């Protein structure tokens, strides 16, 4: 039990340092959460360049607003919320843009996970179900934290997960 409290203290300490303007502490927090952030962005946005833009905008926004974080222990939840907002902003902008390129389906660089059946099945889900599924299964967030993060009731999170599982079963049976 002492080891867990040591890591929580260390994390709080790093967040406190970042809030006081310590750039190295902030970079350490970003590095510690980079895989989580990438997988959440990947669950929401499909285009690699848009994912990179969302991550970059998230880091900048988090750095500028780190002092608005009320409780240090919620840094991860706080930065994921910023990321989700950035991803949604990018999705809104991309809906307004009409591509004139006829070959816009050609992918120059591919993600090694792109060919996985499960990844395709998750990407086929609607945004609400996809985000909830990624947060629950890939980020190991509990229902309560997801509900807080998405600002929806816990029952809604449960029902989204149930609908997502049903749709995923249907898609995976076809594969």
CATH topology of the largest domain: Rna Polymerase Sigma Factor, Chain: A
Instruction: Give helix and strand order, one letter per element, not per position.
Output: HHHHHHHH
Uncertain regions spanning at least 5 consecutive residues: 98-115
Binned strand content: under 5%
Q: Report the total helices.
A: 8
- How many discrete structural domains? 2
Amino- and carboxy-terminal Cα gap: 45 Å
Mean pLDDT: 82
CATH class of the largest domain: Mainly Alpha
Rg, Cα atoms, Å: 18 Å
Largest beta-sheet characterization: none
Q: What percent of residues adopt helix (DSSP H or I)?
A: over 70%
Q: Tell me the quaternary state.
A: single chain
| Second rung of CATH, namely the architecture of the largest domain | Orthogonal Bundle
Structural class: mainly alpha
Strand tally is 0
What can you see in these coordinates?
Belongs to the sigma-70 factor family. ECF subfamily. Keywords: Sigma factor, Transcription, Transcription regulation. It holds the Pfam family Sigma70_r4_2. It is a single chain. By secondary structure, this protein is mostly helical. The chain folds into two domains: 90 residues, RNA polymerase sigma factor, region 2, helix turn helix motif (Rna Polymerase Sigma Factor, Chain: A); 63 residues, Orthogonal Bundle (Arc Repressor Mutant, subunit A). It is built from eight helices and no strands. The protein is globular. About 10% of the residues have low confidence.
Summarize the structure.
Helix content is 73%, strand content 0%.
């Amino acid at each position: 039990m002492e080891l867990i409290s040591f890591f929580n203290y260390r994390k709080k300490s790093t967040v406190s340092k970042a809030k006081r303007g310590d750039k190295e502490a902030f970079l350490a927090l970003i590095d510690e959460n980079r895989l989580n952030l990438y997988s959440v962005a990947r669950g929401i946005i499909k285009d690699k360049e848009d994912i990179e833009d969302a991550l970059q905008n998230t880091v900048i926004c988090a750095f500028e607003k780190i002092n608005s974080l009320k409780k240090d222990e919620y840094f991860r939840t706080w930065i994921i919320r910023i990321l989700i907002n950035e991803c949604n902003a990018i999705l809104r902008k991309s809906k307004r843009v009409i591509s004139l390129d006829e070959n816009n389906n050609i992918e120059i660089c591919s993600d090694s996970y792109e060919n996985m059946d499960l990844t395709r099945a998750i990407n086929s889900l609607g945004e609400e179900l996809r985000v909830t599924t990624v947060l629950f299964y890939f980020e190991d967030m509990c229902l309560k934290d997801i509900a807080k993060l998405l600002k929806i009731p816990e029952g809604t999170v449960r029902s989204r997960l149930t609908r997502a599982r049903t749709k995923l079963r249907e898609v995976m049976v076809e594969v």
